[in-house]
Design a protein that fits this description.
It is built from three helices and twelve strands, in the order αββββββββββββαα. The protein is α+β, with helices and mostly antiparallel strands. The protein has a single domain, classed as Porin (Beta Barrel), CATH 2.40.160. The strands form two sheets. The chain has an eight-stranded antiparallel beta barrel. The longest helix has 19 residues. The chain starts with a helix and ends with a helix.
């Protein structure tokens, strides 16, 4: 399943990047923000969603302009998240996990006509997440007569065997809405829905999937080509003629 996810995402990435590079100018810059992640856990007998837990997401984003309103945006980001069992799963040997991941999102974005200062936009695409590691915590419990299981804290085991805690690859859909300032500042909100079952060895009728909300602030150097073209078009004709005479 991981190989299928990687193949689908790679094809999607190559197609969009080829389309994006059809235009010679690229904007790029840092992006960082707060993300809140929840995990849905289901089995043949029960289901539960863990509470949203705050984390950090940040890295580098790039913008490729296709036309004035159409862009491709891709990135390389670090993200951390927390899994804490929901109310239906607290106790009974359910672990807590602190997860480090590297994310590669890519989206097809549409920029609406804005004013001279900013343009609103929406984006739809996919993301691939590689879980690089983390921490595993299993709270102890009572054991008769009058004894207690000790707490267990160790490194998170990432892999696809019985001894592992979580699968290394996640992937799914992502949706963004935001406001791009023409000076470079970008404000956006993000919704991501993981489609991969993150159980290392999936049991019958069971799943462990991610869901994430994000609030991000970024800055794009060399503001988007479509914006530069619009700025040129907004230049009064008298100024253009005077500029030509100087040349």
């Amino acid at each position: 399943m991981c190989k299928d996810t990687l193949m689908k995402y790679s094809i999607f990435l190559v197609v969009l990047l080829i389309a994006g590079q059809a235009h010679s100018q690229i904007s790029f810059g840092p992006e960082a923000g707060v993300n809140a992640t929840s995990y849905f856990v289901s089995s043949a007998s029960a289901g539960d969603r863990s509470p949203l837990m705050a984390g950090f997401r940040g890295g580098i984003k790039a913008d490729f302009t296709l036309q004035e309103h159409f862009h491709v945006r891709a990135g390389a980001l670090y993200a951390n998240s927390f899994y804490v069992p929901g109310a239906n799963l607290i106790g009974g040997g359910h672990p807590e996990m602190y997860i480090h991941a590297l994310e590669a999102p890519i989206q097809f974005s549409y920029f609406f006509s804005g004013n001279k200062m900013a343009s609103p936009f929406v984006g739809v695409g996919a993301f691939l997440s590689y879980i690089a590691g983390g921490r595993y915590y299993l709270p102890g419990g009572d054991m008769p007569p009058g004894m207690k299981y000790p707490d267990v804290t160790r490194k998170l085991n990432v892999g696809t065997t019985l001894s592992d805690d979580i699968k290394p690859l996640d992937g799914g859909i992502s949706i963004t809405a935001g406001l791009q300032m023409k000076k470079g500042l970008c404000l956006s909100v993000l919704v991501q829905r993981g489609m991969e079952n993150l159980q290392p060895i999936p049991a019958v009728n069971s799943a462990f999937k991610s869901f994430s909300l994000g609030l991000n602030v970024g800055w794009y150097f060399h503001c988007c080509p479509a914006q530069r073209e619009k700025q040129k078009d907004d230049t009064p004709s008298g100024e253009k003629n005077w500029s030509n005479k100087l040349k």
